[in-house]
Write a structure and sequence with these properties.
By secondary structure, this protein is of the alpha+beta class. It has four helices and four strands; from the N terminus they run H-E-E-E-E-H-H-H. It has a four-stranded antiparallel sheet with strand order 1-2-3-4, covered by helices on one side. The chain is globular, with a radius of gyration of 14 Å. It starts with 10 loop residues before the first helix and ends in a 7-residue tail after the last helix. The C terminus is likely disordered.
């Protein structure tokens, strides 16, 4: 990916990220697990890997994404936009793994989805549920 999230995650966040996340039901879309400093993001229904993000420690504390790869086979994942994938990657970590509300990221995902699909009338909650498996009011 040419565009990466700029967030610095705290050491406590990194500990939680390393524990990963397993989808709790049919509506949840992501399983997340870590091998060393690489965090893998797989679709829960298919088991297919979509993202792999390599984290690196930051001077002074915390962790950031140093590099990431995204699946570009259109039959496995429909993403072709680095800006969208950057937001999706950060949002899965923030909202799903860490359980934070992330309203700015959610709004950005909705904006990018509407622009990408030329569907300005799609409700934000539908877009978020479709992409993340989350309602717009969940955290």
């Amino acid at each position: 990916m040419s565009e990466l999230p700029q967030r610095i995650w705290s050491d406590e966040d990194w500990e939680r990220i390393q524990r990963g996340y397993g989808a709790q039901g049919m509506d949840e879309k992501w399983n997340v697990f870590t091998e060393g400093e690489v965090v893998h993001f797989h679709r829960s229904w298919t088991g297919r890997g979509v993202f792999a993000a390599t984290f690196a420690p930051v001077d002074g504390g915390g962790w950031r994404i140093a590099s990431a790869v995204v699946e570009r086979d259109g039959e496995r994942y429909g993403g072709t936009d680095d800006a969208y994938d950057c937001v999706m990657l950060e949002l899965v970590i923030t909202a799903i793994v860490l359980g934070e509300p992330a309203p700015e990221l959610r709004s950005r995902l909705v904006e990018l989805t509407r622009r990408k699909s030329c569907s300005a009338d799609a409700p934000a909650g539908v877009i978020q549920h479709s992409a993340l498996g989350l309602r717009s009011d969940s955290n």
